Amino acid sequence: MSALDERPVTINSGGARLHAVLHLPTEPRGRALAFCHPFAEEKKCAHRSMVDAARACAEAGWAVLRFDLRGCGDSPGRFVAADLDDWRADVVAAMDAAARETGSERVGLLGLRLGAALAAQVAEEHPEVACLALWEPIVDGGRYIQQNLRRSMIKAMVTAHEGGEEDAGAARAAGALGEGTVDFDGYQVSERLREQIGAIDLLAQPRAYAGPVLVVNLTAREEVAGPLAELASAYARGQAVAVRQEPLWQRIGVIDASPTIEATLTWLEQRDD
Amino acid sequence: MADAQLKQEIKEMIVERLFLDADPAQMGDDENLMENYEIDSVNLFEIVVGMEEQFGISFEDDDFSVDLFATVDSLADFVERKQAEA
Hints:
The complex is a heterodimer of chains A (273) and B (86).
Chain A: E1 5-13, E2 16-24, E3 31-36, H1 41-59, E4 63-67, H2 84-102, E5 106-112, H3 114-125, E6 132-135, H4 141-161, H5 168-175, E7 181-184, E8 187-190, H6 191-198, E9 213-219, H7 226-234, E10 238-244, H8 258-268
Parallel strand pairs in A: 3-4, 3-5, 5-6, 6-9, 9-10
Antiparallel strand pairs in A: 1-2, 2-4, 7-8
Helix pairs in contact in A: 2-3, 4-5, 4-6
Chain B: H1 4-17, H2 33-36, H3 41-55, H4 72-85
């Protein structure tokens, strides 16, 4: 592996100054990716995998800008004030910054989970996006909200079983609306953001984005899950692939993301269009 | 008592979704899943999603209890009950 060329970058997104890290290739190919992270606890769990992916892409000649949406990670702002409109603007600002910082004429988007859904939404309005690599995108936001709350309830149930104080009833109470927020496993989510995420439906209509799209399903199965296969087919140039890989976003710790990264690099290698 | 085919499908679903290094055919119907396979809350969530997708059932908030996830027997009984209610 060659020496890493990485440096911090500050992105101006409508006055918000976002934290980012730029991973530069030793042999630039004039292409760059902006990496859209997942939501809340999933971001924390996937952090190392995202770093590994960025470095692998840089090694393969793609500059990668990893950035924190406002209110997340090292970027300023309060998480509870987060808003999908602002986050989509952040993604666009990250694309602009990636182009400016690397001299790349075209910038693609790589996203994981909610970050992938954001990338897909941005691409609908920005045909200049070079390509879209969507890792387990949130296709149905309503179901995603339900699953987040359910995950908290299961965790509380197990904690109580192991002698802790929480129980499922307490988790339900915590997850319920209170003072305009919802508790997502310790993250206070505003009612507005919950509604915006709940309204995500990537299958509601044909996708207008005409560039190349990769949809990656991390699974133990050989076939791509129905909704993700359907999403890929909704794009004119969509492709779905099943990768045997444990979820990258469910546990704190080191997970070898190589299968997902390699599948993505194989696809990126074909992106000379 | 749930049928053997359903129990086998549940075992295969658990092994597959949790990436367990185990032979579904060797899993006991009444062995404690959480203890014998070190199943934690993340795994339980995967089992819930897998059961909903594979067997076409829906969990309600009141359904969640550690006893439900204790064994393949209890999970199979739950699936049959939910399917009968549908």
